[in-house]
């Protein structure tokens, strides 16, 4: 099964945005993420609806963070993306008449529910500020140089 990389990609973009001075256009983000600007606009619209980013139109417009990094958690971003599936594991058949399959499904459903609750709770504990601090520690460890995929525009 193909993995859904949207959460990772959006977190990546949001951290780059935090390092910029000013708005970032959908086109610039799309180039950095190797996708289409329409895809970026769709994703960012979901983040805007949740109050995580703002958008400005016209010359000098683009996307900016609407909250401080400490006020945005991984769970906030995950939920803004529409809560994509966290696990590739699932039941072979949802409504089986087989009692063995019902037993298997019951066990898997409970374990996956518990694992999802734990993962979402952990997502709620991790802020973009913590990710940014980790980035800055890594940056300092490699001599303080970093070529941003989302460049500043003067």
Structural description of this entry:
This protein has 154 residues and is mainly alpha-helical. It has a domain of 99 residues: Arc Repressor Mutant, subunit A. The chain is 54% helix and 5% strand. The protein has 6 helices and 2 strands; from the N terminus they run αααββααα. It has a two-stranded antiparallel sheet with strand order 1-2. The longest helix is centred in the last third of the chain and has 27 residues. The chain is elongated. This is Rrf2 family transcriptional regulator. Pfam families: Rrf2 (PF02082).
Short descriptors:
154 residues, mainly alpha, Arc Repressor Mutant, subunit A, two-stranded antiparallel ribbon
Compact description:
By secondary structure, the protein is mainly alpha-helical. The protein contains six helices and two strands. The termini are far apart.
